[in-house]
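Throughout our pipeline, every protein is held as a single compact record rather than as scattered files. This encoding replaces a full spatial description with a residue-level series of whole-number codes. The remainder of this section carries one protein's record, kept here as part of the documentation.
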Amino acid sequence: MPINYLSIIFEVLFSFIIGVITGIVFAYLFIQNKRVWLSYATFIGANTGIVFLFRNLFAEFNIAESHLLGLTTLCMFSLCISTLYVISLLVSKIKDESKADALKITFIDMLVGGDKVFDKHFEYRKSEIDRGLNFAELTIKNKDIETKLEILKDKERVNKDQEERIKALLANSNTYLDVPISYKQPLDSHLINCLPEYFKCLSSFVRYTTESTIDFLKRIESLPKEDNPVHLKAYFNWISSNFQTAFFRSDDVRIHFRILDNSNTYVSYTVWGGSKSECNLTPIPVGSGLIYHAAKEKRSLVKSANADLYYVTRNNAKWEDYLTIIFEDKLFFRDDIAVLTMGVSVRHAESYSDLLRFLSFIRIEEVIQHFLLKIDTKLPIIKNLK
């Protein structure tokens, strides 16, 4: 019987291809399995299946029984070779990625404990990436950011709570400041936003005037007493200058002191700010205007808060609003009539009226009176008002 070479070539190629395909599949399963014994059990099962497959195929296609052993051996050989080749490629790749000198992996390691090799490789790659990214430092920074984020969230919650409380406060129609005599200053968002700056200005004024007063008291002891009226005027100008610097920082203000003369009229004593013509104060008779009502209430009064009480002067149109200050200590009164007053006039009411009403509300007169009483201990004020 002639030999059918074509049939033999087909049988050889078929056996080889089946072995290679099975080897690649087995290598994949071997790599994926975490348990080595399961991988080898898969290998034995695959070989048993191939033997069973070949027997049935040979019987189906009438392949000679004598070829069975050789074809099965070829299939097993190609299976083993392809499996080992794929695994060796994987080992080579791991070595390249791990810089072989830093991570020692052998072919035997892969066959005996593949799962441990992969764990080892994973840990090495993880540590390598951590070093590259400086993971430890990033972790510390991340924790720091998270801490700051929590702090910001807490602040946001506090601010939100404050905002809600302020809104609720503003929604209440009874939320206002009692500005004398009977003016209700709405405690709106604009005024609330200005309050920190107002208190900062107040603090500056107290600091400036404290320094000026200490310096003045040191100097006055060594100066001729006949010059006391001149020195007293200089001190009042110091107070005016400090007031302007602390609260206004502009030329849109005029600060003056008035005294009661022998004709029962309030006349100019000192004037700070304003043009030359604006320094000529209009005489105000006793019993008129805000001076009279301020003395009666023992409180400083604002023109815009008492529009029906002020005395019309010749510069009334230039100075849109003003604060009239009296000092309630008996030193500054004679028969219930104030003998010394202070005035703060501003050009632009829309810019400064809230500030003037704030100063009236906090009793700025008591702050200034505190310094005047200190001066009076060394330089009698009423005696030297000339």
